[in-house]
Amino acid sequence: MNASTQPHATLRTLEAGRFVASFCVVLAHFVQVIVPQWSVGRPVTLFGGIQAPGALAVQYFFVLSGFVMMTAHHADFGDARAAVRFWLRRAGRIYPVYWLALGIACIYLSGLMVGRRAFVVVTLWPLAASADDIIASAWTLRFEIVFYLMFGLALLPKIGRPLLCAWVAVVMWTTGRDIVHAAPWTALPPGFWSDAAVFISPFNLFFFAGVLAAWLLVAVKLRRAALWALLVFGVGGLVALLPFMQYGDGYGTPCVMLLSSVSLGSTMLGVAGLERGRAIRVGPWAVWLGALAYPLYMLHMPLQLVMQLEIKPYPLGAPALYGLTALTLACFLAVSACVAFGFDQPLQTLLRSRLRRVARR
Prior knowledge:
By secondary structure, this protein is an all-alpha fold. It has helices at residues 12-37, 54-73, 80-109, 115-123, 139-154, 160-181, 204-219, 224-241, 254-276, 285-310, 318-360. Mean pLDDT is 88; it is low at 1-7.
């Protein structure tokens, strides 16, 4: 199978996974931040104390980013104009919804938008610590910016592919060094790696895993049995790693991150290949849910802030807290749907149309 002739199409299973991952992050943050404020006397434990796997969801996002970029742009390597179009398209994808969420947060936190911090927050400048963020979850977007920058450079003629290989080599070397010097199976605090140097952080391993999985999907004809084997291997690896990742609530050591990136990449390749081979079928609802994922992920923390500052907490027991959680998450979904289908999707359609016109000139 020739990589340049393999068509790009939306994979509905991965879009559904995008929504599930986003919802896990939202649920984890809500239970950690809002529920204790509305508890009676002492914090009430919901869902039997089981935390939504927010960290694992973030890893999924990163693998998916690499996967989507490679499947959509595998034929663009060596085209300088494609690199510019890619950067414009990615900027239009990430910034408008982020700026909308930031605007909501700044209604209450505008005093923090001063000097260098304002520049860092507005631009998502990657060379900054997560402590600078006004929207806490925006640290992940800085890694996305790095992915976009480096992948766009990789599309350039002559220097692109060697540059990508050099980046992979540097990240692998630094990760190997960290594995040698760190306790391989001791879980690290959830925010530890978010302040690491973004260009050489182990988080880039997830992006590489997605790129490799997508390349294998478009360049190699894998039989259905091999795809099922990859899926089983990936899921099995994730299950085995969960105790070292605080059951999805932590990222683990560099060793754990390396293994989980391989497991996620294998899982994604297996699922995507089986869907393309029609062994797995998912309805169009998955695409709609996928469209909700990014607005939900970006807006939920500003909406939580509005809830914290505008609504006085009332002591509730466990049954009422379950009701509050369901009602609030339903409201978050409704707001995200309005933003997704009333703002983000029309904007993406307009941007794609404009870029096509520029490409024809």
